[in-house]
Amino acid sequence: MDTRDALHHLRKAKTAHLKWRTYAQALAAGVSVGDDKAPLQHTGCDFGRWYYGPGQSLREVTDLYEDIEEPHRLLHEAYAAIYELARAGKYTKASDKLRGLESISTSLMAIIDACVEDIRDR
């Protein structure tokens, strides 16, 4: 995988991530989202399929690559919990979970940014 392709996928992951965080915020506020916004396993989203597939070649490029896995998995778990709480009408609990998701989100974005910088610097 060339550098440009890797950077493209990491930037695309950030964009998708921000969209899903917005969906979580909407759910916690009581706004319904479409069935196409149902939670996915962290290995099943577009980024996850890339990360566990062609993206594996980045292990040779940056030591930070593996640092993405855990927060990405936790983010999906938090989103799934928010989704289920909102569907059950438990918006206060969904809002509580949202704070955790936002913290995980901040960490994940920082790791992705660090990966991008590390790859660019090589």
UniProtKB/TrEMBL annotation:
Domain Chemoreceptor zinc-binding stretches: 17-82
Q: Which domain of life is it from?
A: Bacteria
Question: Under which name does UniProt file this protein?
Answer: Chemoreceptor zinc-binding domain-containing protein
- The organism encoding this protein is Acidihalobacter ferrooxydans
What lineage does UniProt assign to this protein's organism?
Answer: Bacteria, Pseudomonadati, Pseudomonadota, Gammaproteobacteria, Chromatiales
